[in-house]
Amino acid sequence: MKSTQKLTLEIKKLNRKLEDINNRSRYMIYSAKPGKFMLYNFLAGTFHALGSLIGTALILGALAYFASQIDLVKPVATWMEQVVSQVKWEEVVPTLPTQ
Fold first, then answer.
1. Cα 97–86–96 angle (5° rounding)?
2. Domain coordinates of the chain in residue numbers?
3. Does residue 82 register a pLDDT over 80?
4. pLDDT tens, 2-49?
5. d(CA 97, CA 88)
6. CA–CA gap between residue 85 and residue 77 (Å, rounded)
7. From CA 32, how far away is CA 35, in angstroms rounded?
8. pLDDT at 22
9. pTM to 2 decimals?
10. I need a labelling partner for 3 at 20 to 30 A (CA). Which of 21, 63, 65, 82 fits?
């Protein structure tokens, strides 16, 4: 074997060992202080939910603002007038029998 190949193999072995140590240390952190781990996860979830709420409020607020700038009353009113004029009210609302 060439010396560069041996060196490459040794570096790969070292990388695997370092990854193994890193994974073990993560597990030790989680299991050593479960209260701290739960607190950090709770805070992360809280801030994630808060960010989602604020983002949704901003987007809905912007949509409401732009919708308020569009005058849809006249087209909707004319459409409703057309629909109402086509309805045969005698068939929809029964008349009271006369005595």
1. 5
2. 1-32, 34-89
3. yes
4. 888 888 888 888 888 888 877 766 666 666 777 888 888 899 999 999
5. 19
6. 12
7. 9
8. 74
9. 0.46
10. 21
Distance in angstroms between the alpha carbons of the first and the last residue of the chain: 115
- The amino acid occupying position 77 is A
The token duo for 54 is 């604020």
Q: How far apart are alpha carbons 8 and 82 in whole angstroms?
A: 81
In the structure encoding, which two tokens stand for residue 88, read together?
Answer: 């045969």
Neighbours of 37 (CB within 10 A): 13
Give the 3-state secondary structure of the chain: CCHHHHHHHHHHHHHHHHHHHHHHHHHHHHHHCHHHHHHHHHHHHHHHHHHHHHHHHHHHHHHHHHHHHCCCHHHHHHHHHHHHHHCCHHHHCCCCCCC
